[in-house]
Amino acid sequence: MYGVRLDGLGKSIPNLDITNEYLATMVETSDEWIQTRTGIKSRRIAVEESTTSLAINAAKQALENSGLEPKDIELVIVATVSPDMAMPSTACVVAENLQIENAICFDLTAACSGFIYASEVATSFIKLGNYKNALVIGAEVLSKMVDWQDRGTCILFADGAGAAIYKRSDENNIIGFSNKSDGKGSQLIRLANIPHSNSFSKAEEVERHIQMDGQAVYKFATTAVPKNIIELLEKENYRLEDVDWFVLHQANARIIDSVAKRLKVSLDKFFMNVSEYGNTSAASIPIALYDAKHLFKKGDKIILSGFGAGLTWGSMLLIWG
User: Fold this and answer.
1) Alpha-carbon span 59 to 65, nearest angstrom
2) Looking at residue 212, what is its pLDDT?
C-alpha cells in the first residue's frame, strides 16, 4: 500500500453576492430571521458562471498550487448534483479544458457528502497503486434548482466550487474515512430529474425544485455527524483531543454549533465560512478547506465531515502538510 497526501487546493466562486437584505425584497424574510436560523449573511449566485466553469477554475488553481502539470493527473472526479449536462460528465469537460489527457474521468453523486465520498475513492485508488495523482472537485450551481419564492430553501443554497489534489507519497497523511448512507431518508431532501416522457407515455408532472424537510435534516445531521466522527477516530486509534481542527459541511451554523456541543469540543476548533457562502453542497468542504488553510500548521490533525441527501454522511481524517 502506498501513502497519500493532500497537496494543492483551489476554489472558485461566482461574482454576484446576494445579501439577506436583498433576499428580503424577493421573499418574506429578513436578515435577522435568516442569520438567527442559519448563520448565513450572504451567498454567491452564478449568472455568467456555470458548474463546469467554476469546476475548471477551482481545478486550475489547485493544479498551480500543487506544482503538477496536467499531464501528471491520472484521475479526475467531480462531485456534483447540478451538472450542466447529463453527459458528458463534468469531469471529462474539465479534463478537456485543462488539457488533462492521461486520466480516467467521472462524476459522483452523493449530494453534500460528495467531496468526502470522492476523496475516499481517489485516495483508495492511489493507495492501491492504480494512480499517482488525482484531482477531486466539488462543484455546484444550486441556484438553478431553487424555488426563489420558498424561503425554506432559497435562503440556504448557493453556488461555488472547490478542488483538491491528492498525490502518492512515501508518508501517508490521509489517515482514514467513515462513509455511510441510509436510503430510508431518501425523501428528506430531493430534486426531481427530467420527467419521464416519450412517444409511448404521457409526461409526468413533477416538482422541479429542491424540496427539504428542514427539521428532519437538522435532527439527522446533529445526531449522525458526531457519532460518525467518533467512530472514525476510534477505528484509526485517535482521540477527540488529538484533533486540531474540524471542517464540516457548511450547511448551517446551528448544526455545526450543535455538533461541537455533542462532542464537547470548543467551537473555536470548528472552521466556519457559511456566513459568506451559504450551503454550496459538494463544494462547501473544499471551499472551507481552502479558506482555512492559513490556520493550519504542519502536523495538524483535521477532521472533514459532510452530510446530505441520500441520506449520505461521512468523515475523513487527515494530517496537514
Assistant:
1) 10
2) 85
C-alpha cell at 50: 456555470
What amino acid positions are annotated as catalytic residues? 112, 249, 279
Q: Are 131 and 125 in contact (CB under 8 A)?
A: yes
Residue 36: CATH number of its domain: 3.40.47.10
pLDDT at 207: 67
Q: How many structural domains compose the chain? A: 2
Confirm if 123 and 314 have CB atoms less than 8 A apart. Answer: no
Residues of the chain with pLDDT under 70: 194-198, 203-207
C-alpha–C-alpha distance, residues 2 and 35, integer Å: 45
Write down the pLDDT at residue 281: 98
Same domain? 159 vs 180: no
User: How high is the pLDDT of residue 121?
Assistant: 98
| DSSP secondary structure letters along 106-140 | EEE--GGGHHHHHHHHHHHHHHHTS-SEEEEEEEE
Sheet of 75-79, strands arranged across: 3-12, 159-169, 133-141, 75-79, 104-108
Domain, as residue range, for 209: 175-196+205-319
In a shared domain, residues 160 and 231: no
Instruction: Quote the pLDDT of residue 147.
Output: 92
Give the model's pLDDT for residue 197. 66
Give the integer Cα–Cα distance in Å for 64 and 90.
20
